[in-house]
Amino acid sequence: MQYNFDEIISRKDNFSAKYDELNLKYGRDDLIPMWIADMDFRTAQPIIDAMKNRLEQGIFGYVSRPDSYFESVCQWYSRKHNWNVESKYMSHSHGVIPGLVMMMNDFTSPGDKIIIQSPVYNEFFEIVQDHGRELVISPLKLTNGRYEMDYEDFEAKVKTGVKMFFLCNPHNPVGRVWTKEELMKIGEICLRHGVQVVSDEIHCELVYGNNKYTPFASISKEFFQNSITCISPSKTFNLAGLQSSIIIFGNEKQKNRYDYLLQINDIKRNNCFSLVATEAAYRYGEEWLNQLLVYLKGNIDFVYNYCKENIPKIKPNIPEATYLIWIDCKDLGMTADQLKNFMTNEAKLGLGLWYGEESKDHVRMNIACPRTIVEQALLRLKAAVDTLQ
Ligand SMILES: Cc1ncc(COP(=O)(O)O)c(C=O)c1O
User: What spacing in Å lies between the alpha carbon of 278 and ligand 1's midpoint?
Assistant: First the structure.
């Protein structure tokens, strides 16, 4: 089936955070929303069909997860990513972040150090600090226009007694797909110093060209046992509103403990729609995904070329993965507050604005929308930048 990603679908009455919370977040609602990471596209037809069938049953009582649910994930991972992980290692969560919070709270103690690599997904900062852990930041290094991990800095910092590492693989917002070699280096450091790796791999299917996603835990038995992997069809298939993700444990004791926490908090079940949607995504969603990736890459190239030709002071980074473009605005010569004000009140764009201290002259643009919307956004941006000259 041919999908039409150019179609503009109104999100009015869609109760969409991206649109309906603009005022709350930016103080105005006349912005083109390109912030929170969801897409303005309809999901794959097999997912919609599966949900429709479920809807037509008309009974929405408590659900029991069939074996085929996690098996669909295992089969996808084995086929797509050459990782033969068994379903017995998998658990459920109402989202990657709720899962991270629960694990951090239970597997570390208040005051323990958690390391992250900035700039990185803003929730990583917030959950660590909100839950009384000490945030340790190892900034990524920019080498010849490409972000890299700083192993020396990372190792020096973990030696101070870090307990847990939130890895973002692939990385939001810089769009890197960490290579196997990079993951091996960082994973070895963690093993050496007893740091547990929690790898957020939510963006792992949104990878372009020859870049190759490597599940951290697939690298070796030692890495598997020292890691917890968080995945979800939510970013890939635009299902974030179904609030369901999968946590893969390499350590049986931790998995049993986590399952016990799900039990005693009474949050062990999926909702009935996430159950069928997830399985349909992993079993029948690939055709849609392949077309989506071509479209997203077209949007990325469009942004890059447009800025190069028309707004040279705005320098988008071409992501290896994700539909989020990390944009260098240094040449505008603004402070973080000025940049925020400029993008919101002059360019009238609702962009991602804060991912750590290292991000103060950058913004993040979500281009998972029809190209005409991306074009409108760039016209707004150019008009605003032109007024500065
Ligand atoms: C790296 C990363 N992790 C987690 C999330 C949120 O996941 P969830 O909605 O499953 O909590 C996002 C959303 O943008 C993300 O980019």
Answer: 16
Mutate to test the pocket of ligand 1, among 96, 177, 324 (most ligand atoms within 8 A of CB): 96
Q: How many residues does the chain have?
A: 389
- State how far the Cα of 382 lies from the Cα of 106, in Å rounded to an integer: 48
Q: How many helices (H) and strands (E) does the chain have?
A: 15, 14
Q: Is 35 in the pocket of ligand 1 (CB under 6 A)?
A: no
Q: Which residues pair with 92 in a beta bridge?
A: 246
- Give the atom of ligand 1 at the shortest distance from the alpha carbon of 120: 1
263-306 per-position pLDDT tens digit:
999 999 999 999 999 999 999 999 999 999 999 999 999 999 99
The residues with which 148 forms a beta bridge, in sequence order, are: 141
Residue of 116, 200, 239 with the most ligand 1 atoms within 8 Å of its CB, for mutation: 200
Residue 89 has pLDDT above 90, yes or no: yes
* 388's tokens: 């500065």
Tokens 């069939």 belong to: 66
320 vs 64, 170, 238, 326, 339, CA distance in Å?
38, 8, 19, 11, 25
Domains of the chain in sequence order: 17-44+286-386 (3.90.1150.10), 59-284 (3.40.640.10)
CA of 239 from ligand 1 middle (Å) equals 12
With cut-offs at 50, 70 and 90, classify the pLDDT of residue 12.
confident
Q: What is the position in ligand 1's atom list of the atom closest to the CA of 322?
A: 16
Question: Using CA atoms, how far apart are residues 68 and 27, in angstroms rounded to an integer?
Answer: 45
DSSP class per residue in 172-235? TTT-----HHHHHHHHHHHHHTTPEEEEE-TTTT-B-TT-----GGGS-HHHHHTEEEEE-SHH
Q: Which of 27, 16, 12 lies closest to 353 in space, CA to CA?
A: 27
Max Cα-Cα span within the chain: 62
What value does the mean pLDDT of the chain take? 97
**Tokens describing residue 123:** 């929730």
